[in-house]
């Protein structure tokens, strides 16, 4: 089982995306830069946690993407 979701944002710094998601959605993710140079432009989400919390985080993230 892989409880992680990786998302790529080409041309963007992972810490920049981390800040945007935290400030806009109040969802915590992990900047890919922490995993080495190849992780830059990626962020990692964890689906650990209660189902209702994961659903709420997905709802918040989708509102950021759709707006």
Describe this structure in words.
There is one protein chain. The chain has 67 residues and is of the alpha+beta class. It has a single domain, classed as Alpha-Beta Complex (Aspartate Aminotransferase, domain 1). The protein is built from two helices and three strands; from the N terminus they run E-H-E-E-H. It has a three-stranded antiparallel beta sheet.
Short description:
This protein is an alpha+beta fold and 67 residues long. 42% of the residues lie in helices and 18% in strands. It has helices at 14-25, 51-66, and strands at residues 4-8, 30-31, 42-46.
In CATH, the homologous superfamily goes by the name: Aspartate Aminotransferase, domain 1
Give me the CATH architecture, please: Alpha-Beta Complex
Q: Spans with pLDDT under 50 lasting ≥5 residues? A: none
Termini separation: 32 Å
Radius of gyration: 12 Å
Overall pLDDT level: 93
Number of helices: 2
What percent of residues adopt helix (DSSP H or I)? 40-55%
By secondary-structure content and strand pairing, the structural class works out as: alpha+beta
Note the overall shape: globular
Please name the CATH topology.
Aspartate Aminotransferase, domain 1
Major pleated sheet: 3 strands, antiparallel
Strand content: 15-25%
CATH class: Alpha Beta
By DSSP, the count of extended strands is 3
Order of helix and strand elements from N to C terminus: EHEEH
Across the major sheet, the strand order is 1-3-2
